[in-house]
Amino acid sequence: MRGDPNHRSPGLSGGHVEWVNESLSDGLSVLETIEHFQPTVLLGLSAAGKIFDEKVITAMGKVNERPIIMPMSNPTSKCECTPEEAYRWTDGRAVVATGSPFPPVEVNGRTYTPSQCNNMYIFPGIGLASSVSGVTNITDKMFYLAAEACTNTMNEEERQEGRTFPSIMRIREVNRNIAIAVIEEAIRCGLTTKITKDDIVTGIPQLVERKMYFPIYSPLITKR
Asked: What CATH number has the domain spanning 120-211?
């Protein structure tokens, strides 16, 4: 707070000073921060196990109809909370994604399947788009559209299961859709070096599908 140097981070650059909130101490606990700012998302990157305790999760549930709880730290011993705790302490209202894989959990008679938030959902599709189109620059909007394409690939069954991402069994479909979205944006921006007029006429979805890699190999040793 103003006038209390013990509650101010030292050495802030000019670009950060304008974002300093002088009315609150930077020594607030997680619970106090939620009560003051009423965030919609709780993103765990602390590697401090169990820091999202029942009071913290309950507070998120009080200020949000669907609180977004993402304990992302690895390994599981460092996870800020478990998916079961996030679901149970919000009466199943939480939108949950984790850094580590967790099995389905049952809360109040309903089974929830938490999603692992992993870059395998995004990066392969962006890489495929880059390879196929020869894109010269990956823009912020391309990343946004990639995330949107991932979300739009989810079906109603997966949403009802409480997933935040599509099933990993459909990862090829996810990355196909991401690649198409990124390439189409690259074409709009004039950032492709490999896309021809014939490719556009034939269709970008068809082009992507032809270029996708299938790791299927003929056996090197014949069984006898």
From this structure: 3.40.50.10380
